[in-house]
Amino acid sequence: MSKVQVRKITTLADTKYLKLYNADYINKKGVLRSWIIASRKDLETINDKYFHGAEDKIDAVVIVAKHVKEDKLVMIRQYRVPINGYIIELPAGLIDNNESFEEAVKRELKEETGLNLINIDYKNTKEKVYVSAGMTDESIALVQCTCDGEISSENLEDDEDIEVIMVSKEEARKLINSNEDIDVKALLAMQNFILS
Question: Is 91 in contact with 169 (CB distance < 8 Å)?
Answer without folding.
Answer: no
